[in-house]
Write a structure and sequence with these properties.
The chain is α+β, with helices and mostly antiparallel strands. The chain has helices at residues 14-40, 43-46, 48-53, 72-80, 97-113, 148-154, 175-182, 186-196, 201-208, 212-226, 231-239; strands at residues 58-62, 67-70, 85-87, 90-92, 126-131, 137-145, 159-165. The protein folds into two domains: 46-165, PAS domain (Beta-Lactamase, 2-Layer Sandwich), CATH 3.30.450.20; 175-239, Arc Repressor Mutant, subunit A (Orthogonal Bundle), CATH 1.10.10. Strands 2-1-7-6-5 form a five-stranded antiparallel β-sheet. A two-stranded antiparallel sheet has the order 3-4. The model is unreliable at 244-248 (pLDDT under 50). Residues 181-238 form the HTH luxR-type domain. It comes from Acinetobacter wuhouensis.
């Protein structure tokens, strides 16, 4: 905030400056409250309830790095993977990744303030891969949410979506979803998911304690029901199926 005065008006007196010092404390509080209202009103635009249903770990935050929302899947990841931490609504990462993360947010904030966002500047989604000596790792993908038109219409600051991927704790596809979508039996759905995890038919047969011919017949049924012709097509299809948290 700043105060402008003219040559004719002259500089402010000590009494006036003292009054403004006291006033700024209250003005700052009002501005912060209003900013929070704008940020949290994005809930109706983004749809927190839908985000909570996704089994993909998602964290929403503003450009100051303050966490707005963490879905259930992300909370589960944070309990298992200690690389990323959230304390007092702020994200913390090991160096040098934390500095890199904060610099990217500052850059986006600068573009936003200069009104050069989206239309005049190409902003690519970012990815930070963090690996630690003990074997744990974490991928953090960042995407800017809310279009420039929506920001101008609703007065909302940009929201950043962080998508987390932990190779040691990947999200799983619901077997029921495969049944509803393609009418796969429970056995066929399990075979499809094992293929997605990289198991060969012979290993799947050993894992399920059945003959290899049984698995091959199940694969043919899966291909027919999913309108795919080979394993690579089936894997691509499964990778693009939306994943939702199962109801507890």
């Amino acid at each position: 905030m700043g105060i402008n005065t003219s040559k004719k008006r002259g500089i402010l007196t000590e009494t006036e400056l003292s009054f403004l010092d006291r006033l700024f404390v209250h003005l700052k509080r009002v501005v912060l409250l209003q900013r929070n209202l704008y940020e949290y009103s994005s809930k109706s635009l983004i749809g927190f309830e839908l985000i909570d249903k996704l089994s993909q770990p998602i964290i929403l935050l503003n450009l100051s790095g303050v966490v707005i929302h963490t879905n259930h899947a992300a909370k589960n990841i944070l309990e298992k993977n200690k690389i990323l931490k959230i304390e007092n609504s702020n994200i913390f990462l090991p160096e040098p990744y934390y500095t890199q993360f904060k610099e990217s947010l500052s850059y986006l904030e600068l573009l936003f303030k200069k009104e050069r966002l989206l239309k005049n500047t190409n902003l690519d989604d970012g990815c930070i891969k963090i690996s630690e000596k003990e074997g744990s790792s974490l991928y953090i993908f960042s995407t800017l949410l809310i279009s420039e038109a929506e920001m101008k219409m609703f007065g909302i600051r940009p929201t950043v979506m962080l998508t987390l991927y932990d190779p040691n704790h990947p999200s799983e596809i619901d077997l029921h979803l495969l049944h509803v979508s393609f009418n796969l039996t429970q056995a066929e759905a399990k075979v499809a998911l094992l293929l997605l995890d990289g198991f060969l038919p012979k290993k799947i047969a050993q894992k399920h304690g059945v003959n290899l011919d049984t698995v091959r017949k199940q694969l043919q049924a899966i291909y027919k029901k999913t309108s795919t012709n080979r394993q690579s097509e089936l894997v691509k299809l499964l990778l693009n199926i939306p994943r939702f948290l199962q109801e507890q």
